[in-house]
Amino acid sequence: MMSVADEPDGTVVTDRPEAAGPQERVASVDALRGLVILLMIFVNDVAGVGRVPSWLKHVSAEADAMTLPDIVFPAFLFIAGIAGIRIGFYKSPELPVFVNILGCLTMAFFVVGLTGLITRLGYRMRA
């Protein structure tokens, strides 16, 4: 229910906030998301090739180094987190609701990572 009051200067005041317009896209976030997806496809495709430069291969666990394939997944998590923050803030700019949405997204990422870790550990124990 909306109540309307006219002010003496002719303006109209309502107690209902205006509906949010369509969300504007951020070109830099879209460009980084596209680059990360392109790199994911590229490094997965190159993984099956025999003779590739060393910077296109994963380094061993003992090495103190990172290569391009080692950076792609953290970049994906970063861009997914940025998108999650934008989605959460767009749905509700009120801080408690925003923190709740962000907490749910964080827990979802944590559960997916924990599931992958448990699966990997269970596979190693059977082998």
What distinguishing features does this structure have?
127 residues, mainly alpha, two-stranded antiparallel sheet, 3 helices, 2 strands, elongated
Number of domains: 1
Please identify the structural class as seen in this structure: mainly alpha
Q: What low-confidence regions span 5 or more consecutive residues with pLDDT below 50? A: none
- Percentage of helical residues? 55-70%
Total helices: the number is: 3
Widest beta sheet: strand line-up? 1-2
Shape designation: elongated
Order of helices and strands: EEHHH
Q: Please indicate the percent range of residues in DSSP E strands (runs of 2 or more).
A: under 5%
What's the gyration radius in Å? 23 Å
What is the average of the pLDDT values? 76
Could you describe the largest sheet, including whether it forms a barrel?
A: 2 strands, antiparallel
Overall number of strands: 2
Euclidean distance between termini CA atoms: 64 Å
What report would you give on this structure?
The chain is mainly α. The protein has one domain (26-126). It has helices at 27-46, 68-91, 95-126, and strands spanning 4-6, 12-14. Strands 1-2 form a two-stranded antiparallel sheet. The protein is elongated. 1% of the residues are buried. The model has no long low-confidence stretch (mean pLDDT 76).
Brief description of this entry?
This protein is mainly α and 127 residues long. Helix content is 60%, strand content 5%.
Compile the SSE list and pairings:
Blueprint: E1 4-6, E2 12-14, H1 27-46, H2 68-91, H3 95-126
